[in-house]
Amino acid sequence: MGLSIIRRFAVLVVLLSLASWLQADPVWEVSKDDKRIRLGATVHFLRAADLPPPAAMQQAFEQAQQVYLESNLADSASPAFSRRLTQMMMQPAGRSLEDDLSDPVWRQLQDYAAQANFPLATYQGFKPAMVSMAMTVHELGRQGFGRGVDEFYFTRANQQGKTLGFLESSDTLLSFMAQLNEESSDALIESSLEGIEHMDGMMEEAVDAWRKGDMDGLYALLGADEMQTEYPGIYQNLIIERNRQWYPKIQQAMTEGTPNLVLVGALHLGGPDSLRVMFEEAGYQVVPFMAGAE
């Protein structure tokens, strides 16, 4: 089946930043006409040993007066967001998760739930997309992955009284989750189970890429290039359209004084359609920001 869907949609839950003391940290400074801003790559799930983030990102955060994240984490953690997600992912009346799956796939899912202590009964009333995401988060938790860069800096910004800005609304996040409902139910669960089986190795490779500062390598590792070929509509909406929507907002956030900091998922800073490429093609200077720089 090629790269599993869980890897193609890894950007929804495991967008990894990249850092190494041997190479540039996952922060770039973008400048033009005396205005500049810093772009940092994030991951939504990290292990405790991976925090705090790299020194350059910490310095960029401390120097920034305003910090921008993809979306407001307080909104996505609210009861209202949970209700909307639940409604979007619920099965129609009289239908269950088992009804959406073939017998062989249902048995595979039952076997995984028993082996991994996944509460399958809790998700009988949900669509396969919800179960796929829940399994991913469950497995990441089993491997010791918890809060990521976004939550780390969201909390610190609030503690320090920094101004927070957001590039998109919680409605946008829900719309991307809804796209998963359009995938084949059997294929989604099978691919999720396949991805989970190989997640440990994939995450170790991703951590290696993180340590080496290989943003484009991570882009390939997470299957973004294959997603573009096999799921062009999702790639268009998930990467290209969001970058286009964020680009003018980042331009507006540029300052002539101390640069503000924008934190986005790593796949938005790697590959041919990245924000870095967009700025470079528009004549901006894009250079790594190293710890100790002004």
From TrEMBL:
It comes from the Bacteria. InterPro entries: TraB/PrgY/GumN_fam, YbaP-like. This is GumN protein superfamily. It comes from Alcanivorax jadensis T9. The lineage of its organism: Bacteria, Pseudomonadati, Pseudomonadota, Gammaproteobacteria, Oceanospirillales.
